[in-house]
Amino acid sequence: IEQAQALLFEHYGLQGQLHSLGSQQDLNFRVESAQHRWVLKFCHDDAAPQALAAQHEAMRHLACHGLAVPQALAALDGRDTLAVHLGQQRLQMRVLSYLDGQPLTRLKHLGPVAIARIGQLCGEVDRALLDFQHPGLARTLQWDPRHAHKLLDHLLPALGDPGQRGRVVEMAFQAQRRLGAVSADLPLQAVHLDITDDNSVWQRDADLRWQLAGLIDFGDLVHTWRVADLAATCAALLHHGHGDPFAVLPAVAAYHRVNPLEQAELRALW
Fold first, then answer.
1. Residues 141 and 218 sit within 8 Å (Cβ to Cβ)
2. Nearest residue to 251 (alpha-carbon basis) of 267, 237, 270, 266
3. Cβ 125 vs Cβ 62: under 8 Å
4. Nearest one of 246, 270, 261 to 112, comparing CA atoms
5. Strands (E), the chain
6. In 3-state terms, what secondary structure has residue 80?
7. CB count, 10 Å around CB of 66?
8. What is the pLDDT of residues 98-154, one digit of tens each?
9. Would strands 210-215 and 200-204 be described as parallel, antiparallel, or unpaired?
10. Which of 52, 61, 100, 155 is most buried (CB neighbours < 10 A)?
11. Which residues, other chains included, contact 53 with Cβ-Cβ below 8 Å and sequence gap of 6+?
12. Measured distance CA(135)–CA(71) in Å, rounded
C-alpha cells in the first residue's frame, strides 16, 4: 500500500487513504481524501494498452450519451494509463473517478423492478455503443461466448465426477447446436459483457427504494454478439430467482423496450 500511495502522489499528485477493493485479476483500491474519492487500478502489464484505451474511450462515449460511468483521470504528464513498477513487477496504472453507491449482489431478494432496471441499463448501454469502434475491442476474451466451446475443452478435466462431466458436455452440446443455427445472423457490436448486480451501483432514495446510480468495471469490453451482453446480465441475475429461471424475464422485456432484439437474438438467448 505504501508503494501504491507513493506512485499515486508521484504521477497524479493525489494523496489519501487506500482501501482494497475486490477484483478477479487486477489490484484495485478506493482512495479517500477529505474531499474526494477515486479508484486506483493496477493490472498486469501484458494487458494490451489498446484494450485499456478502448475502456477509457468507451466510458467517455457513454458519458456523452448521458450514462453514469467512471472516467479516467489524466496523470500529471497528461496520460491516462501509465506503465509502472510495483516491487519487481511491471504493471499498468490508472485512476478512475469514483461512483458512490453499492452493488446489490448480496441481497437475498431482488424484485422485478430492480431486475428490469438492470435489463434496461444493459439495453441503454448497447444502444449507445452501437456505433462505437476502437482497435482495442478486437481481442480474444475468455468470457466471450463465441469461444465457449474452447473454454469448455480447457476446463472439463477439472470435473472429477464422470457423471457431472457428461451432463456438462450434453448441455454444452445442446447450447452449441442451438447457437449454431442462428450465430451467423447475430448482430455484432461493442458490448460491456458484465452488466450485473455486482457492477451496477445503487443508492437508496428518500423512500428507501433502490435507485440505479451508475455502471462500473469495463474490463470485459469486447466486440462480439450483441445478445451476449443481455445473456451475461440474465445469467448473473439467476441467483436472485430462487430456482425460478423466468425471474429474469423483466430484464429481457426492459432491454427489448429500449433496444429491440431480433428474432435470431431471442432464439440464441433462450
1. no
2. 237
3. yes
4. 246
5. 17-21, 27-32, 37-44, 82-86, 89-97, 188-191, 200-204, 210-215, 222-225
6. coil
7. 8
8. 999 999 988 888 899 999 999 999 999 999 999 999 999 999 999 999 998 888 888
9. antiparallel
10. 52
11. 81, 134, 136
12. 19
